[in-house]
Design goal:
Order of helices and strands: HHHHHEEEEHEH
Number of strands: 5
Strand order of the largest sheet: 4-3-2-1-5
Shape: elongated
Strand content: 15-25%
Structural class: alpha+beta
Number of helices: 7
Distance between the termini: 63 Å
Radius of gyration: 23 Å
Length: 182
């Protein structure tokens, strides 16, 4: 056991510091995401999803830092990660629309002016939609039409179209008894 620690005290100390910093930044990030989400009235499931995205990003950064601490040279790391990102990039090119929807979902978490329960009109020349936002997910919005039909609308398209807010929190306004129309 002494052989393990012999000559590696500084690496172990830096690793311990990196782990502590990782968990501290992770805690701060998750707390900020929770506060922003609750202040903006975002669904709890979306808050957890954005928290997971931030944790994965921080974990990738931590792995890079840890590899450097343990002796990997910068040029080795760049070769490994550029190769890895090239393979991932080629694989993900085939599913770029999924990535754009996830990215849009993250953008919508921080700056989407409409909330669950709002009635909106999407000005699409081919298929205009007037509906109540039932749910905002990672890939799409769930919209409930007046006739009761459920429409799933991709996140990346909602930011490309003009949208009008018809009624704020239409679910509560439509039902005087407090029950949801969904």
């Amino acid at each position: 056991m002494d052989i393990l620690f012999e000559g590696n005290n500084s690496k172990l100390t830096y690793t311990l510091i990196a782990v502590i910093v990782f968990f501290l930044i992770r805690y701060i990030t998750k707390t900020l995401v929770r506060k922003i989400g609750r202040r903006n009235g975002v669904n709890e499931a979306r808050i957890r999803l954005i928290g997971r995205y931030s944790t994965v990003t921080l974990l990738i950064i931590f792995v890079l830092v840890e590899a450097y601490i343990l002796g990997a040279e910068f040029k080795d790391l760049t070769v490994i990660f550029s190769s890895l990102f090239a393979v991932i990039g080629i694989a993900l090119f085939a599913i770029w629309s999924i990535l754009s929807n996830v990215t849009t979902g993250i953008i919508m978490f921080f700056s989407f002016p409409y909330k669950v329960g709002d009635k909106i009109k999407i000005h699409d020349k081919d298929y205009p939609i007037e509906a109540i936002i039932e749910d905002i997910r990672a890939f799409q919005l769930h919209l409930r039409l007046d006739n009761g039909d459920l429409v799933t609308y991709p996140n990346n398209l909602i930011l490309q179209k003009a949208v009008t807010l018809i009624k704020k929190d239409a679910i509560d306004d439509d039902n005087d008894d407090g029950s949801a129309a969904i």
